[in-house]
Amino acid sequence: MNAIGKCIFVVLFLEIAVSICQDDNSYKTCSKQLTYTIRNQIQAPTFEYSLQIPFCHQPFIRIMERAVNMSANYKFTATYFPTLGYFIDAINGVRGFYTVNNTWWQFLKAPDIMLQVGVSSYYPTDGDHIIFNFTQSGGK
Ligand SMILES: *[C@@H]1O[C@H](CO)[C@@H](O)[C@H](O)[C@H]1NC(C)=O
Ligand SMILES: *[C@@H]1O[C@H](CO)[C@@H](O)[C@H](O)[C@H]1NC(C)=O
Ligand SMILES: *[C@@H]1O[C@H](CO)[C@@H](O)[C@H](O)[C@H]1NC(C)=O
Asked: Do residues 64 and 102 share a domain?
């Protein structure tokens, strides 16, 4: 192959790689898997759901989007902040009012490890069990 041929080959290869990354189904071939639980036991509507989700190297917000695609039980709203990324406002319409009654969504790794970073910065590892737990307590 001459230089031009090599160049065309590299460009084609990159295009194929990019199109694989953009394919919504590509994550199914990723070997990592996590469990994602959303739990609200403190006010109506109470719920608890868990899903097994395959994933590649991605921040957790992408897994949350995938959960929405996979199941009608997973809905969320979020606000995007410069630098910090997404902050989760509500899950299934349930919203924390920390200043009113200390309610908020805890972002946890099972069983009860509080994650110190947000959903845009946390990159899950294989076998993780991530929980969004609606809670009512001081010390947010
Ligand atoms: C969710 O589905 C839509 C429509 O098929 C797709 O465009 C989007 O990439 C999917 N999101 C994720 C995170 O898989
Ligand atoms: C907390 O306050 C909000 C806003 O007033 C209310 O909708 C919600 O039911 C309250 N939750 C609890 C557990 O008191
Ligand atoms: C989840 O929230 C409930 C209700 O506030 C609380 O009792 C429980 O300890 C929390 N779970 C974890 C794992 O922190």
From this structure: yes
**Ligand 3 pocket member 30 (CB < 6 A):** no
The DSSP secondary structure of 68-121, one letter per residue, reads HHH-TT--EEEEEETTTEEEEEEETTEE--HHHH-EEEEEEETTTEEPSS-TTT
Token pair for 11: 């460009």
User: In the chain, which residues have pLDDT < 70?
Assistant: 1-28, 139-140
The pTM (predicted TM-score) of the whole model is 0.83
Answer whether 97 contacts ligand 2 (Cβ < 6 A): yes
What residues make up the domain containing 7? 1-29
CA dist 68 to 53, 75, 76, Å?
11, 6, 8
> What pairing do the DSSP bridges indicate for beta strands 113-114 and 76-81?
unpaired
23 and 78 co-located in one domain: no
In terms of domains, do 9 and 63 share one? no
Whether residue 111 is preceded by a cis peptide bond, meaning omega within 30 degrees of 0, is yes
What residue's CA is closest to ligand 3, atom 13? 112
